[in-house]
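Key result, reporting period 2: structure in, sequence out.
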């Protein structure tokens, strides 16, 4: 059991978390870039809102489109009033899977 002398589980957890978060952020950035590329453009306002975000202390990173002023992101994605959505976010995620896998496995 001598190999566990000085074991600091919190330090190890933080080091692993930091390593994982770096990769998760890289994947989120990849998906956000692809979403910007696929986003339908009328004024460019929606495309300009695509970003990644994380809550402090959380281990999740989100790719977000829209804000209070550009409230229609969900309608562009999913459709509204019988119109079919473009699904640009879903397509961005799907098309990024192979590269995301490479990032995670590296």
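The corresponding designed sequence is given below.
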């Amino acid at each position: 059991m001598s190999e566990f002398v000085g074991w600091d589980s919190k330090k190890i957890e933080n080091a692993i978390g930091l390593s994982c978060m770096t990769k998760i952020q890289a994947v989120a950035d990849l998906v956000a870039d692809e979403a910007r590329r696929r986003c339908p453009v009328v004024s460019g306002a929606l495309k300009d809102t695509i970003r990644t975000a994380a809550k402090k202390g959380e281990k999740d990173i989100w790719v977000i489109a829209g804000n209070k002023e550009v409230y229609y992101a969900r309608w562009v994605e999913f459709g509204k009033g019988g119109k079919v959505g473009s699904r640009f976010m879903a397509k961005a995620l799907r098309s990024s899977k192979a590269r995301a896998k490479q990032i995670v496995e590296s």
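The radius of gyration is 18 Å. Residues 9-105 form one domain. This case is discussed further under Risks and Mitigation.
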